[in-house]
């Protein structure tokens, strides 16, 4: 009886494992974006682990230690940064190379679609693994040059995030305003979200004054940054409501204001943990390793998700020829049949129907998003991850499980806040400054 039960258990486990493997493979085949995002996530986690625990391994590499022959040995934090830079470099080369290869792929009949983008995942996984390992054989000088290149490439990823945010909020407002013509509920929902966003701005400001301007310390810098953030929110709201601004609406202004205050919080919490005005950071430093690690994981996941969405948003960065950025036109038909479209806009039953009828895919069927743009965004995200984990190259020697801490990170986020507000205000005033140009696209 025991042998029969053991046999049945083993069979059930094998079947479950086989089903999971089949589902995973099918999901990756139907969405190259999901597959590459998964591999990129593995790279990010590997870089984080190597930064905190890989210094002893790098000290055994002779081509790295040779760089310090006869000189002072750098601290462990330097070796951790080297590990992050090398993994970041490998991913940058991988995604940058794929961006060049996928240049001008516009139709699904292009051989590069099936052969390189959607197919041969075992080969691509091996290529990804090689790109993560081979940079550890490069000399220190090459990695140092890449670290400086990443300092200039990373802001481009932040800029893309800002443009996507502006586009999403404006489209959200237009969509609900149009739906409100038929159903007043959407107008009420817009009003509720707008008031909630402004209430969130005031709440965040109060918390920032409490945690980052404690009594008994000279925190004029933090007070200035918080106050300036509130002033920026007021300025963009006033510009939005100006009667000459045609597309002005309080809903996008409220969302951008809330994001502005979030950037203020993010900048202040990036201050060194021993800074007397960072009371919140001092409390977090006393937290458990599990709590800190969870915070880091959430941050890294948000970066991966941002890269996924930005790389797939063809409409915002469209150069023509791509009309289905995220949802394919036949997704509705698939839903009517009781199925769901693949993440890359390929209906699960479409391939089988084509094989059954013996008809090849239509030669002029366009791809659902820009492949080159997708890989380029992930190449920039690889640079950004390197800066995120090393405090933009600063050697602050912060504790393990922490990322994006240091004065450089503070000012990068403050600058991001100013650029975000500037971009939003520009979208409002540009039609007034250049009335002959069409800004509706």
Describe the structure.
The structure is a single chain. This protein has 441 residues and is mainly α. It folds into 2 domains: 32-64 and 72-317 and 377-433, no CATH class; 324-365, no CATH class. The protein has helices spanning 2-30, 32-53, 55-58, 62-65, 76-101, 111-118, 121-133, 140-180, 185-212, 220-240, 250-269, 279-285, 289-312, 331-336, 350-357, 371-390, 407-433. Helix 2 runs antiparallel to helix 13 (289-312), helix 9 packs parallel to helix 11 and helix 10 runs parallel beside helix 17. The longest helix is centred in the middle third of the chain and has 41 residues, at 140-180. The termini are far apart. The relative contact order is 0.13. Residues 1-29, 318-343 and 345-362 have low confidence and may be disordered.
Counted beta strands = 0
Q: Average pLDDT value?
A: 76
Please state the overall shape, judged from the principal axes of the Cα atoms.
flat
**Termini separation (Å)?**
71 Å
What's the tally of helices? 17
* SSE string, helices as H and strands as E: HHHHHHHHHHHHHHHHH
What level of helicity do the residues show? Answer: 55-70%
Structural class: mainly alpha
Strand content: under 5%
Number of domains: 2
Main beta sheet, described?
Answer: none
Task: Note poorly predicted spans.
Answer: 1-29, 318-343, 345-362
| CA radius of gyration | 25 Å
Question: Strands, helices and their partners?
Answer:
Blueprint: H1 2-30, H2 32-53, H3 55-58, H4 62-65, H5 76-101, H6 111-118, H7 121-133, H8 140-180, H9 185-212, H10 220-240, H11 250-269, H12 279-285, H13 289-312, H14 331-336, H15 350-357, H16 371-390, H17 407-433
Helix pairs in contact: 1-2, 2-5, 2-13, 2-16, 5-7, 5-8, 5-16, 8-9, 8-11, 8-13, 8-16, 8-17, 9-10, 9-11, 10-11, 10-17, 11-17, 13-16
